[in-house]
Design brief:
The complex is a heterodimer. Chain A contains twelve helices and 16 strands. By secondary structure, chain A is of the alpha/beta class. Chain A folds into two domains: 244 residues, 3-Layer(aba) Sandwich (Rossmann fold), CATH 3.40.50; 127 residues, Rossmann fold (3-Layer(aba) Sandwich), CATH 3.40.50.920. In chain A, the strands form three sheets. Chain A has a seven-stranded mixed beta sheet, sandwiched between helices. A six-stranded mixed beta sheet of chain A has the order 10-12-11-14-15-16, with helices on both faces. In chain A, strands 1-8 form a two-stranded antiparallel sheet. Chain A is globular and about 70 Å long. By secondary structure, chain B is mainly β. Chain B has a domain of 65 residues: Alpha-Beta Plaits, CATH 3.30.70.20. Chain B has a two-stranded antiparallel sheet. The longest helix of chain B is centred in the middle third of the chain and has 5 residues. Chain B is elongated and about 55 Å long. The relative contact order of chain B is 0.25. Classes of the chains: A alpha/beta, B mainly beta. The interface between A and B is medium-sized, with 23 and 20 residues.
Chain lengths: 391, 103
């Protein structure tokens, strides 16, 4: 094990190298570019004996990864924002064909107006594509979760693609100390892929060809079941990762100071670290507040949220994207998860930090204040610049 | 007469009745030849062998691999797969292929 001071993007690159990826295909886009540039350096120097396929678009990059994965290769790509949106059709293909492609995504706002800063609208737009989806809080977590993603995606009980996302610039271009596991440790954790359900040269097989109404639904059900199984598999492999590296990040919904909390804020990505500081300050002032982090959005941590909600009075959701005509995506999912329970706490949505606007400690303090006072609308646009009363 | 680069098993078609019978991934282990795809054809290509020069251009352009060759090297339309797109007739230099309306 060695400690390097690296960006979140390089954490992705090192994870792909340690995973011994065999095929990488990618197209550059800010702020993702340095992930695949670093991998290109690894390939050029001979440190990573992989095929690096240069393509003319993100759509082709994903197609190249799906095809290589269908033949049994371990594949990786990375993208962001508009590039991810261009891939959208192929994201469905990757899960439908059950190809365990792993992808790094740098969360960035979508245009127009043009923006290159943090926002979760790009990945939230992919939530129905059948991809396992993680949101990273730190560069260390990005590296560790990417390694977990390979093992989870390729697991015989899962076989689904997985993406590991990180917030633009807050992680992608900010350097932090990161423990890099040794190649021996990663080799122990991540064995080569098994080749079940892969295409074989010389054997006539068809992947994803026409299926009528008689059996299409059953193939979809298989994806649904695999995604359900991935919950348990993830907890098992994270425990195995802890055994080997000594590190664990706390499952699908890590919590912070929630034991006796009456008010809990649910966060995603880098806003979590800011919110932890605010929770500490409010705790010091005697407030019973806590925090839960949506580390995984797919599979959605339904049972974890129900366990948490069973002993709190209020839950606030910090959404870094908005579904027009509804509410923040995390809010609606949490509302759906908690409706069938006996104890339903007050649930409020706080839309904040769109297009890279800083979510500061003051922002979070204001959210806790509104939440605890039981005032304000069900869905609030936090820190909005407006002369009107914001409703 | 069609040449296959890979081993094709068109005889044994597995029967899928429920979700449990299906492979985990949507992989078929039989060739797509078992699926006849010509039911919506409106015009059928008919080859005039006295004009045909065996140049193979029709076979090269057929988007569905629906043309094979007889022992003398003349093209034969595989009517279980031909959708009647008429690309072969369009491309045929000696105009040996006529599109005839299906009954």
């Amino acid at each position: 094990m060695a400690e390097l001071v690296i960006s979140g993007n390089y954490a992705q690159s090192y994870a792909a190298k340690l995973a011994r990826v065999q095929v990488v295909s990618a197209y550059p886009i800010t702020p993702q570019t340095s992930i695949v540039e670093k991998i290109a350096e690894f390939v050029a120097s001979g440190e990573l004996p992989a095929q690096y396929i240069k393509v003319e678009s993100e759509h082709s990059a994903m197609q190249a990864c799906i095809s290589a994965s269908a033949l049994g290769a371990r594949t990786y790509t990375a993208t962001s924002s508009q590039g991810l949106l261009l891939m959208h059709e192929l994201l469905h293909w990757a899960s439908g064909a059950r190809t365990p492609v792993v992808m790094g995504v740098v969360n960035r706002a979508v245009a127009p107006p043009w923006s290159i800063w943090t926002d979760h609208a790009d990945t939230m737009s992919q939530r129905d594509t059948g991809w396992i989806t993680f949101y990273g809080e730190s560069n260390q977590e990005v590296l560790d979760t990417t390694l977990l993603a390979f093992r989870l995606a390729e697991h015989p009980n899962v076989r689904l693609p997985a993406m590991v996302t990180e917030d633009a610039f807050y992680l992608s271009h900010t350097v932090e100390p990161v423990d890099i596991p040794s190649q021996e440790q990663v080799d122990e954790f991540l064995p080569p892929r098994d080749l079940a359900f892969t295409l074989q040269p010389g054997v006539a097989m068809r992947l994803g060809s026409f299926t009528g109404p008689d059996m299409y639904m059953e193939f979809r059900y298989k994806i649904a079941k695999a995604m359900e199984r991935s919950r348990k598999v993830f907890l098992e492999i994270e425990e195995d990762y802890r055994r080997i590296t000594g590190r664990i990040h706390g499952g699908l919904l890590p919590t912070y100071r929630t034991e006796d909390a009456d008010t809990v804020l649910v966060t995603m990505g880098t806003a979590t670290t800011t919110a932890k500081g605010v929770v500490d300050a409010l705790r010091a002032a005697g407030k019973k507040v806590g925090l839960a982090k949506l580390r995984a959005f797919r599979p959605f941590p339904v049972s974890e949220l129900r366990d948490l909600a069973a002993h709190v009075d209020r839950i606030g959701v910090l959404d870094r994207s908005f579904t027009f005509g509804a509410a923040g995506a995390a809010f609606t999912e949490i509302a759906g998860a908690l409706y069938p329970t006996d104890h339903r706490p007050v649930l409020r949505d706080f839309v904040a930090g769109l297009g890279g606007r800083d979510i500061t400690p003051a922002t979070i303090e204001g959210v806790f204040e509104e939440l605890s006072a039981d005032k304000g609308p069900e869905v609030a646009w936090t820190d909005l610049k407006s002369r009107r009363e914001v409703a | 007469m069609t040449q296959h680069a890979v081993e094709v098993n068109s005889k044994h078609v597995p029967k899928y009745e429920t979700e449990e019978d299906l492979p985990e991934a949507p992989i078929a282990t039989v060739s797509s030849e078992v699926i006849h795809t010509a039911s919506w054809r409106t015009f059928r290509p008919v080859i005039n062998l006295t004009l045909c020069t065996k140049c193979n251009v029709c076979w090269k352009f057929c988007p569905d691999d629906a043309i094979e060759f007889d022992v003398e090297g003349y093209p034969v339309i595989r009517l279980d797969y031909c959708k009647g797109c008429a690309i072969c007739a369009e491309e045929c230099k000696p105009k040996a292929i006529a599109m005839v309306k299906e009954e």
